[in-house]
Structure formats: structure tokens, C-alpha cells
Specification:
about 130 residues; alpha+beta; four-stranded antiparallel sheet; three-stranded antiparallel sheet
Length: about 130
């Protein structure tokens, strides 16, 4: 029994603590996470299928996060409401992944500990 207990501790110690650092991506999927049709064509090409999560809405813009197809990549997807304009961007977990709204508002992916989030894991920056 001592050996089994030791192996369990070693295995648990190797697991990443706190998940990905992006709480939106760490939660289970819900019906609200369904992507608009315009983004569905990106699944498998840029977005890892089934990983998109709705982060929230800010100033009428609906925002999702998704894992990218490349290892350790993350994507932001923004539906700008009643316009024909939608945007997405993917990049490494190191940060700096952003899209700019028609209004000029820029949305950037931020980790859990970032203070000024307009919706979970998303900051509005100038």
C-alpha cells in the first residue's frame, strides 16, 4: 500500500496545477458555447473542434475562446452583433492575441490572474 500511495502522489504532482490558466477553457461545454456559423468553418483548420467556450458579451459584441489546432495555442472569436463583421485570431499562450472591433475597441486574451477583464479571460485595451 505504501508503494501505491507514493505513485499516486508522484502522478498527482506531475499534473498541471489550476488547469490551463484560462478558466473559460477549463469548464465543461454548455449550449451557450455553440459558435455562429461563420466560425464553424474554422474548426479543424484553426480551431480545435469542440473546444470553443462562450466568454461573454461586451458592448454588444459576443466573444468566445477556443483552443487552436497548434499545440499550446489559443484563439479569440468575436461576433460584432448586427454587422457583417466578425473577427478571430490565434496564437501562443504567451499573450498578445487580440482582435479589433469596428468601433476601435481592441479585445485581448488574458490569463485568469489579469485584473481588468471585461468578460472572463478577455480585456478591453486601447
Amino acid at each position: 500500500m505504501a508503494v501505491a500511495g507514493f505513485l499516486l502522489l508522484v502522478t498527482a504532482g506531475c499534473a498541471p496545477l489550476g488547469g490551463s490558466g484560462f478558466r473559460v477553457l477549463d469548464r465543461a461545454a454548455t449550449d451557450d458555447d455553440a459558435l455562429p456559423a461563420v466560425f464553424l468553418e474554422q474548426e479543424g483548420t484553426y480551431l480545435k473542434a469542440g473546444t470553443a467556450r462562450f466568454a461573454g458579451e461586451h458592448d454588444g459584441n459576443r466573444i468566445w475562446l477556443s483552443r487552436g489546432v497548434d499545440m499550446d495555442s489559443i484563439c479569440i472569436l468575436v461576433d460584432y452583433g448586427d454587422t457583417d463583421y466578425d473577427a478571430s485570431a490565434c496564437g501562443g499562450l504567451g499573450g498578445g492575441i487580440a482582435v479589433k472591433a469596428l468601433s476601435g475597441q481592441k479585445y485581448e486574451i488574458v490569463p485568469d490572474e489579469y485584473r481588468d477583464q471585461v468578460v472572463p479571460n478577455i480585456a478591453a485595451v486601447d
